[in-house]
Design a protein that fits this description.
Blueprint lengths: L8 H12 L9 H7 L5 H17 L7 H13 L11 H21 L4 E6 L10 E5 L8 H22 L9 H16 L7
Antiparallel strand pairs: 1-2
Organism: Clostridium perfringens
Protein name: Cell division protein FtsH
GO cellular component, one term: plasma membrane
């Protein structure tokens, strides 16, 4: 089978432009959209534009606008916001707030090249209690120090829970973060040869 690399920023801009051809749209900054979509495949870019068009239609807008793209970006990465949220306990909202703040703070200090673009405690249909979105630097390679720092960012939410509430009050909210951390660590050792020998 033939493996196709993910598109770089220039290719992403062209793919986005292609998918916007038949969709009436406001003047959009395609370069900015391409920059924010690092590591998106062509199919994911198509999904982004289609989601934005759906949002525009629901808004009864004749033009696809930047705010539609922004909302679609969150949906593509994290899922739709859950509509019914009245049953969420205040203590869960507080825990989620500290958890997401932990991710954001560690990201600002350990991976400043990855811009924090959104932090929310609104749960999504993909199971997240909240999320922190960052825009990663568009790079062909990821260095060892960056991968270690990414792991720290992923564990920042759990660390914040432990610092604020104590070790006996940590939650299951870090499940996805721990899965991603394990995946990165395994790849570092088994695929990238970054383990100590």
């Amino acid at each position: 089978h033939i493996e196709v690399a993910l598109p770089d920023i220039s290719a992403r801009e062209k793919i986005i432009s292609l998918h916007l051809e038949n969709k009436p749209h406001d003047k959009l900054n395609l370069k900015d959209i391409a920059r924010k979509t690092a590591y998106f495949s062509g199919a994911k870019l198509e999904n982004l534009i289609n989601e934005a068009a759906i949002i525009a239609a629901k808004d009864n807008s004749t033009l696809l606008r930047q705010d539609h793209i922004n909302r679609a970006y969150s949906i593509v990465l994290a899922g739709h916001e859950k509509k019914e949220r009245s049953h969420y306990l205040e203590e869960d909202k507080l825990l989620t707030s500290y958890h997401e703040a932990g991710h954001a703070l560690v990201s600002i200090f350990k991976t400043p090249e990855d811009k924090v673009s959104k932090i929310t405690i609104i749960p999504t249909t993909k199971g997240a209690g909240g999320y922190t979105l960052t825009i990663p630097k568009d790079s062909s390679y990821q260095r060892l120090d960056y991968l270690k720092n990414r792991i720290m960012v992923l564990l920042g939410g759990r660390a914040a829970e432990e610092i604020i509430f104590g070790v006996d009050k940590i939650s299951t909210g870090a499940q996805g973060d721990l899965s991603q951390t394990t995946e990165i660590a395994m790849s570092m050792i088994a695929e990238y040869g970054m383990g100590k020998t």
